[in-house]
Design goal:
The protein is an alpha+beta fold. It is 17% helix and 26% strand. Strands 21-14-15-18-17-20-13-22 form an eight-stranded mixed beta sheet. A six-stranded antiparallel beta sheet has the order 7-6-9-4-1-11, with no helix packed on it. It has a six-stranded antiparallel beta sheet with strand order 2-3-10-5-8-12. The protein is elongated and about 70 Å long.
Length: 330
């Protein structure tokens, strides 16, 4: 049994924790745009944070569940309903066979994550199911999900809970994205190549996320930044969160689908713990930046990872107790 895409979305894909160890071959990790929200959706179903799930963005696909399933949504609030019943973020929900999951007008955020139990099946490429749109590999045929696509589940729920109405399960989590008004970054290799005025502008001025932004990178509209000299530089390694400065002076923040090398000055690197904040910023959203220390960036990332582990263990206990009440094992 499976779920069926009955209406295509804009850029919906299957992602998992990412594809690592192949940058030397020019193959980036991909994975979710908002690693923290994706991890929470999985963890609330008692699954590993990096398990395969669906990444959706507005306008999102409509999904028909041809088999009963437990789901959990996290990230952007796209006003989801299952069988006409509202489905909140960060709370697992039982959805019977024959129910449609629909998404409406966004209330907040940009990328929504749909985790399922049982797990979805996807194409594995280089030890990851993450969709690499540039390579055309992973996920479902290496492409965006389309109307008529069927995504199979790895197994089935026990027969006793295959029927019934849409219902929320009795545990949930609070949003975990930090309440910061600035996105922190570390100085990049070419930070000192910025003029003194440009360094000040990067720290003081607001930047607006342009509509011409995607999984590969976010273009940021702000003051025209300048480097002290404009000689071409050798193409060098980049990563998710790298702040590149093209000749036009407008920043590009590399995101989950980034390339592995680039020839633009790398003036900064956004902290991994703060990158979800930028990922969830829609077109026209204003963001500000602040310098931080590597020690603080690492400490916050460790806290996020520890939180996801604790959430998974807690949710697994809740799930087992809920199944036991119904005399079931999963």
């Amino acid at each position: 049994m499976s779920l069926l895409i009955t209406r295509s979305g804009l850029c919906d894909t299957i992602q998992d924790g990412g594809r690592f160890g192949y940058r030397r071959l020019g193959i980036g990790p991909n994975g979710p745009m908002d690693r923290l929200s994706a991890g929470m959706a999985n963890a609330l179903l008692g699954k590993e944070a990096g398990a395969a799930l669906l990444e959706l963005t507005f306008p999102a696909a409509t999904l028909l569940f041809e088999a009963p399933v437990l789901i959990c949504l996290a990230g952007a609030d796209l006003t989801a309903t299952a069988g006409g019943i509202p489905v909140p973020l960060l709370q697992p929900c039982f959805v019977p066979a024959g129910s449609e999951l629909r998404f409406g007008t966004p209330r907040s955020g940009r990328w929504c994550y749909l985790a399922t139990l049982p797990e979805v099946q996807a194409d594995s490429w280089l030890n990851s199911c993450s969709t690499d749109l540039a390579a055309g590999a992973g996920g479902l045929g290496g492409r965006r999900l389309q109307r008529g696509d069927r995504i199979c589940f790895e197994r089935h729920l026990p027969a006793n809970i295959r029927h019934g109405a849409v219902r929320l399960l009795p545990w949930q989590a609070a949003a975990a994205l930090p309440a910061r008004n600035r996105i922190r970054f570390l100085p990049g290799p070419e930070w000192e190549e910025l003029t003194e005025q440009s360094r000040k502008q990067l720290l003081d001025a607001p930047f607006s996320v342009q509509a011409a932004s995607n999984r590969m990178g976010y273009r940021l509209d702000g003051p025209g930044l300048q480097v002290k000299q404009t000689d071409p530089q050798v193409s060098s390694a980049v990563t998710a969160g790298t702040l590149q400065l093209p000749p036009g002076g407008q920043l590009i923040a590399l995101m989950a689908g980034h390339q592995t090398t680039g020839g633009y000055p790398r003036v900064g690197t956004i902290c991994s713990a703060d990158l979800p904040l930028l990922a969830q910023a829609g077109p026209g959203t204003h963001v500000r930046f602040a310098l931080t220390r590597s020690e603080d960036a690492i400490a916050d990332l460790i806290k996020q990872e520890a939180y996801l582990r604790q959430l998974r263990l807690h949710s697994r206990q809740k799930l087992d107790a809920w199944l036991a009440e119904q005399g079931l094992l999963l």
